[in-house]
Amino acid sequence: MIKNVLVWYFILINIWGIQIMRHDKRSAQQGKRRISERNLWLLAFVGGALGMTIGMKHYRHKTKHFTFKYGLPMLLIIDVVIFYLLLGRVS
């Protein structure tokens, strides 16, 4: 049960990460209100780094920002390790 919740959390938070990057890219193109970098990092920190990395590459958004270009993949590694450790404890 808890294992399923963790897996679904990881899937949904990363789908959300992709969508957030898409939304922020479109907002930037249209000159609309943007999502703060603080909130982008918060989403990545709580497990959405994979989705945000995919979104960053797919939508070519934030790719010139050093902190996003290198920080998201590093946080992705940390997210995956934490996810793996949590799944191991729940089994």
UniProtKB/TrEMBL annotation:
One of its GO terms (molecular function) is nucleic acid binding. Pfam families: DUF1294. InterPro entries: Cold_shock_CspA, DUF1294. It comes from the Bacteria. The chain crosses the membrane at residues 6-21, 41-58, 70-87. Keywords: Membrane, Transmembrane, Transmembrane helix. Coiled coil: none annotated. This is Putative membrane component. It comes from Lederbergia lenta.
